[in-house]
Design brief:
The complex is a heterodimer of chains A (about 325) and B (about 300).
Chain A: H1 2-18, E1 23-24, H2 25-31, H3 39-55, E2 61-66, E3 69-76, H4 79-82, H5 91-102, H6 110-121, H7 146-155, E4 159-164, E5 170-183, E6 186-193, E7 198-203, E8 207-213, H8 228-237, E9 241-248, H9 253-256, E10 260-264, E11 268-275, H10 278-287, E12 292-296, H11 298-314
Antiparallel strand pairs in A: 1-3, 2-3, 4-5, 4-8, 5-6, 6-7, 9-11, 9-12, 10-11
Chain B: H1 8-25, E1 29-30, H2 31-37, H3 42-52, E2 67-69, E3 74-78, H4 91-107, H5 114-127, E4 136-137, H6 144-156, E5 160-166, E6 171-185, E7 188-195, E8 200-205, E9 209-214, E10 234-240, H7 244-251, H8 255-260, E11 265-270, H9 273-282, E12 287-291, H10 293-308
Antiparallel strand pairs in B: 1-3, 2-3, 5-6, 5-9, 6-7, 7-8, 10-11, 10-12
The chains are: A alpha+beta (about 325), B alpha+beta (about 300).
């Protein structure tokens, strides 16, 4: 049964691809193998087959064949929309694309990466890995939410999920998802929180359980200028202030990565460090103990001192 | 449901449509190799080929049908021009390629190298097929060059020298390691290796490996014959006032156990007490160390020393 259905779908695809003019339904029923039975059941069969081919991403063009009688539509598949066309590709480019697909091994979309790889290899261009340095990219997405979210974003479908709050409560969120972006080793979901009526950002690894798609496609509009990485950079990572720190020589490497060295004495370096999130910076300064001392801004300095006093007190 | 969330008949149709162009460019491939490429069994391959053999242009005589031969265990195809170009990539396929390329780009030191430019133009080419290119972007920092060197070292079993930034001790060090495998923890990637410097098995965070060098004098590659001989594990009892999620994430505690525990006490396990003390200090009093007393004392002394820097 399944075999006959696949056979009919393939024959339909071949016929619609090969034809140079639009085929009418009666021509299809007459000539393509697999359409049989009452006219009404052939009609139903054909409707289902069209939906199935569309689900495979095949675009069927429909047009009235007779300009005088528009009720008789014709069908065909344009080879341009059916087949992969990336223009001229070199062996190095094929190698890069293969590596990009390989990067997904074991990650959320590895099934799609696998079929993409088969299609690329079917182009018949020998890949030239020798031209590449020793690259081995790895996409870090293990979240089961990734796949449903990409669909929800592409088709503008409202979603709901449980999110782990800072106090470890699982809160139900209702969201119109705008975008997904990776920054500093984490994936972030950005969208309009329907209950709070404001844009919110969520870390993917803090979503608990399944993301459910709960609306029809096209349920909301989003800003055509919305750009997920610029949004994340502006809202989460753009420096808001500069701290002046004394960092012990040979220490504080994770802070030094983003700091500017101003001057040095025997034991310490004086550095400027731009920062976006004060509480994260305080965490990091406390982590370094007596290897990092805050000079300014004064509020930051006071906060660190009071945290240290508290640490001494509760461990006394 | 099939692999792509499609029903099995559709899943199979998609596969057969992809089989034709693959065969057209890999004439004479064996049935077994095809099974590996398409991740199906050899008998499924034969079923697919038998079905395809019945397909072709209307008329369905020998003139119009595809010509497949596979009795010998090796497959050739002809008269299949209509389907011989690979199908268009679907949304998820384009997405995987773009995100994979973006990951490679981030691993590059400069955006101006010929390779970076080549990757950039491929991303641009693919983006025209993707309606959500500006909405879904990887941009994750990764060191794909370092990873490549490690992978090669694992497969060739030749040790390498690495420059490593230890977060635990906040030190830069150069050491020769014998990498054994990659592991993932909280979306972070680690490599498990024998370390000549510490003469034991250690775990290194891949993005903390700042540079790699090949070693000239090669020592025998170490195998994990005695993995049970591990470091002593310290158990620390902590009490948590707030920021439970951060605590769970940083100490890799199961959230369920924290959610269950009303007194908000938890046991943290660590191979390096020094690291655990630093982590507890970073919570600035929202987390306190209850046990053991010796580590409590050193945490207090360390806080006092830090406070001394502000006099």
């Amino acid at each position: 049964m399944a075999s006959r259905k696949s056979e009919r779908l393939i024959n339909l695809t071949i016929a619609l691809l090969a034809t140079r003019r639009y085929l009418t339904k009666s021509e299809i029923f007459r000539s393509i193998e697999g359409y049989e039975g009452e006219p009404s059941s052939m009609e139903r069969m054909f409707e289902r087959d069209k939906d199935d081919l569309r689900n495979l991403g095949i675009i069927i063009d429909v047009r009235g064949v007779d300009p005088l009688f528009e009720d008789e539509p014709g069908y065909r598949i344009h080879p341009d929309t059916y087949s992969l066309n990336l223009g001229e590709l070199s062996g190095t480019e094929i190698a890069l694309l293969s590596l990009a697909a390989e990067a997904w091994r074991g990650a959320a979309l590895d099934q799609s990466a696998h079929t993409a790889l088969i299609k690329l290899r079917s182009l018949g261009i020998a890949s030239d890995f020798d031209a590449l340095p020793n690259l081995s990219p790895k996409v870090r997405v293990s979240s089961q939410s990734f796949l449903p979210l990409t669909r929800a974003i592409a088709e503008r479908i409202t979603v709901t999920f449980k999110y782990r709050s800072a106090r470890l409560k699982d809160e139900v969120r209702l969201l119109n998802p705008y975008g997904l972006g990776g920054r500093k080793g984490n994936w972030y979901l950005v969208g309009e929180d329907c209950d709070r009526r404001a844009l919110r950002t969520f870390r993917l690894d803090r979503i608990v359980g399944q993301v459910e798609l709960i609306s029809k496609p096209g349920a909301f509009h989003n800003d055509p200028d919305f750009h997920v990485l610029s949004f994340l950079d502006t809202h989460l990572f753009e420096p808001r202030d500069i701290a002046q720190l004394r960092i012990r020589r040979g220490r504080g490497h994770s802070l030094r990565v983003e700091a500017n060295l101003l001057s040095s004495d025997d034991d310490f370096d004086l550095c400027d460090l731009p920062y976006s999130n004060e509480s994260r910076l305080i965490d990091s300064i406390l982590w370094h103990g007596d290897d990092v001392i805050v000079l300014s801004p004064p509020e930051l300095r006071e906060k660190v001192i009071s945290h240290l006093k508290r640490l001494v007190e509760i461990h006394g | 449901m099939g692999k792509n969330g499609l029903n099995p008949a559709l899943d199979r149709t998609a596969r057969m449509l992809d089989l034709v162009p693959y065969l057209a460019t890999h004439q004479g491939i064996s049935v077994d190799d095809l099974a590996i490429v398409f991740s199906i069994s050899p008998s499924e391959v034969l079923d697919d080929l038998t079905t395809l053999w019945m397909c072709g242009l209307p008329g369905y005589t020998a003139l119009e049908l595809m010509d497949l031969s596979f009795e010998t265990g090796y497959v050739t195809i002809s008269n299949a021009e209509t389907l011989s170009r690979p199908r268009m990539l679907d949304r998820n396929e384009v997405l995987t390629l773009i995100l994979g390329l973006e990951t490679m780009l981030e691993g590059q030191v400069s955006q101006k190298t010929p390779l970076s430019l080549q990757i950039g133009s491929l991303i641009e080419k693919l983006s025209q097929f993707l309606d959500v290119a500006r909405l879904i972007q990887a941009g994750t920092p990764s060191s794909s060059t370092v990873r490549g060197v490690l992978e090669k070292s694992i497969s060739s079993r030749i040790p390498i020298e690495i420059d490593y930034h230890s977060l635990t001790r906040d030190e830069l060090s150069t050491r020769i390691i014998h990498p054994l495998e990659f592991t993932f923890l909280n979306e972070n990637e680690y490599v498990y290796a024998f370390c000549e410097l510490s003469n034991g098995y250690r775990t290194f965070k891949v993005d903390r490996i700042i540079g790699t060098k090949s070693v000239e004098k090669v020592a025998a590659y170490r195998n994990p014959e005695n993995l049970s001989a591990e470091l002593p594990l310290s158990r620390l009892v902590v009490s948590i006032k707030s920021r439970e999620r951060d605590v769970a994430e940083r100490f890799n505690l199961s959230t369920e156990s924290l959610q269950m525990h009303p007194s908000k006490e938890a046991t943290v396990e660590s191979f390096t007490p020094d690291w655990a003390i630093r982590e507890i200090m970073s919570f600035g009093g929202e987390v306190s160390l209850k046990m053991p007393q010796t580590l409590r004392d050193s945490l207090r002394q360390r806080s006092q020393r830090a406070l001394g820097g502000y006099n």
